[in-house]
Amino acid sequence: MVPRSWQKGAPTCDGHDHRILWLKDLYRGDEIRVAPFGGHGLPCRREWLELTGFFRDRHGHRRMVAPALLRVLAQVQRHFGGRQLHLMSGYRAADDPQALNSYHQVARAADVWLDGIENRDLFEYCRTLQRAGENLGCGLYPAGTHVHVDVRSRATIWVDLSGYGDGAIYIPNPEAWLEAHLIGDNYICRSATITFAGRAARPDGAVRGSDPNGSRCLPTRRSGC
Ligand SMILES: [Zn+2]
Question: Which residues have CB less than 5 Å away from ligand 1 (the ion)?
Fold first, then answer.
């Protein structure tokens, strides 16, 4: 599919827009560092193709990455001092194109984290951009390793206590949960320990089932127990 903007003439990267995207793919291990934006914040043809290839799924499927997503990721990167963005998942081809259920399937989402930055801080910055008017999806995975960011028509947030690739365990009221669960706290959910905003820890599955929030999750301090 050739985007319509190309038919009209894609912008050229003339060097006036210095915004950088510097990404590393977690699974392949390769990196990309480009200044992809030309006029009006639209990606230039060559750089857009390179990034689209970088965002390909593990079967090699690709779809042109949404320019708005690229702009948001560049903004996130700039906000956090230009640190490299680690990409866990970009585009994911749908098994059934008639039944889309993820912004990853339309190349409008990225699962990312940054060296030296708590995922909660990354998530909170996603919410800051929402408050500034960006229609983003911001997903926090306290037991996982990433933050989900997508571009959509209406801003939304969620907290999912599942580990990566497992079935979702959504917190029913994410706003209240976020208020009660501060950065730096650990949470013991039955026998599983979730290191909040950490990368390595994940629950052992004990939290699966009904209501992982509330009585099953008891906050402790990071140094506790
Ligand atoms: Zn995601």
Answer: 111, 148
**Residue 222 alpha carbon to ligand 1 centre in Å:** 27
Q: What is the pLDDT of residues 53-80, one digit of tens each?
A: 999 999 999 999 999 999 999 999 999 9
Give me the number of domains the chain comprises.
2
| Among candidate residues 116, 145, 164, the one where a domain is terminated | 116
Per-residue model confidence as pLDDT tens digits over 122-165: 999 999 999 999 999 999 998 888 999 999 999 999 999 887 66
d(CA 207, ligand 1 centre) in Å: 21
69: containing domain: 10-116
| Cβ–Cβ < 8 Å for 192, 205 | yes
Is 186 a domain residue?
yes
pLDDT tens-digit map of 18-66: 899 999 999 999 999 999 999 888 999 999 999 999 999 999 999 999 9
Write the DSSP assignment of 168-209 as a string of letters.
P-B-S-HHHHHHHS-TT-EEEETTEEEETT-SS----STT-S
Q: How far is the CA of 79 from the centre of ligand 1 (A)?
A: 21
